[in-house]
Amino acid sequence: MPRLREKTKRAEILSLEEAVKKFVKDDQVIAFSGFTAMNRNPVALTWEAIRQGRKGFHILDRHGSACSWFLNAVGAMKIYETDWMGWGEMAGKLDINLNKRYQRGEVILEDYSHGAMAMRFLAGAIGAPFIPYYAPLGSDLYDPKYDALGKAGLRDGSNPKIPLKKFVAMDEPFWGDGKVNLLPAARPDIALIHVAQCGEKGTARWRGIGTIDKELVFACDKVIITCEELVPEAELRKTPEANQIPYFTVDAIVECPYGGYPSAVPFYYDYDAPFLRGMDAASRNDDDMKRWIDEWIYGPATWGAFMEKVGAKRLMELKADSTFGYSTRILRGQKPAPRVSVPLSVARSGY
Question: Phi, psi (5° rounding) for residue 336?
């Protein structure tokens, strides 16, 4: 049956707690916004879902992030379809918790290439059931014996969110270009997205890297957006070319300053590399991991309390420069980034 969208959504403005309670359920297929643990992770939403006891998630994602790290830290993920099973370039490329859980048989890992995952979400976004893609032909990613969901007996049609096959190889029929693989569309239950600004109807925008967030909102059945600022919809409509997410794809909006921490939101705040490294260090020892979970996940009563615990001094250090979009106060290598010494208008325009 084709997957059709027949109705325009009307987004609700909710609190963080309300949005998770209403839309995030056990055993859902979830996709996250952003890029690795460095950029616009919907961490506050993930943190709140854990605190509300949600578990059993099937994460279908472009790559690991602070969100997947949090879920593995508390054992709330059961299936992981992705193209990169690390989580943070500045912390530790391997998610230690994921590795431990995989070795214990607590999580199923299904591996695709970067491009293949992007194409799967593109197929889901345009309503196609599958999409052809060449890369990486000849690799073990397309060897049936490494089909993890198939080996687990989950491609039997009982779960409408799991395709019957990982891929189908066929002869390209139009140009005689040899073999090509057909990849199943990505169709998650819900997308958790963090952005810079969102209007009261759901139109949203950010600056900087976007990866496949625009495809996510069309591919997923439900969409929750957290934003740094809730702004008048009319202001966003003045420059529509700067908007990435249309209002009619969004189900819920949460104004949540620092909702992407410890990842970055360009032009708002930078990623907190020492905090990320602390997460990685804690994951290497079970006792340290338990203390970290108790302190940072179950300790603060609200996300605001979490950020108060991080501290105003650290948040000011992470505050992004209005020209560069990232902090010039934190160390990058041996010294901080250079400060702008020309007027803002000149720095931005080059004149």
Answer: -65, 165
